[in-house]
């Protein structure tokens, strides 16, 4: 007597992947592009402000202290290095990263509390290969997706951006830029000298105010035929020539050219070059 056992086979059908929230994903894609644009604009505003402030600081320091060539070169190298590092950290790296849909959905949920996490739930449970979707009813997932899709046009996706702060920074940059342009137009010579000294590293001198001190005092009377030596000490500035005016007995003013003569490293002696 023989017995035969008949095996039964059971076909297991894989669970169908739930439909994705297409409208919301498209809105998040546009939101991602908008975020990149605003981040780029904000980075350029910050970069422009830093460059203008650094230029203004270098102008003031160099004008007041008359910085030597080596110090100006050091400041230029440090400024360029900081500029490159700032650009890489605040612009290149952030813009090269792709913001995940889940991160954008969390920002949208924070700005739209009435969603009650339905958007992030619909995105996470419809992502391919997600483990949590196997433990949730497909009908429930489809219901969440359908609900959030029907509200796609009502969701304020742009609410996550704080444009008021960005506009304020842009306005401040515009004011700073306008002020520097006005000063440059009003004093093109000073702007040109700053460019030559701090970017081209030339030895152009600043046209500063000249302050002279007569030393020693000129006597009230001088004998006819005697020479008169006039010395002037330069307290500020770097004059090459000085004109000495005198009043003759006929009440006519006469001008005598005076030549510069080095007396010491920190002093200048100017003597009369000619005249009667």
What does this structure look like?
The protein is α+β, with helices and mostly antiparallel strands and 276 residues long. The chain is 50% helix and 12% strand. The protein has 7 helices and 5 strands. It has helices spanning 22-65, 69-96, 101-111, 118-125, 138-150, 163-186, 188-198, and strands at residues 211-214, 232-236, 241-247, 253-264, 267-272. The chain has a 3-stranded antiparallel β-sheet, with no helix packed on it. It has a two-stranded antiparallel ribbon with strand order 1-2. Strand 3 and strand 4 form a beta hairpin. Helix 1 (22-65) runs parallel beside helix 6. The chain starts with 21 loop residues before the first helix and ends with a strand. Residues 1-13 and 264-276 have low confidence and may be disordered.
Briefly characterize the structure.
With 276 residues, the chain is α+β, with helices and mostly antiparallel strands. It is built from seven helices and five strands; from the N terminus they run αααααααβββββ.
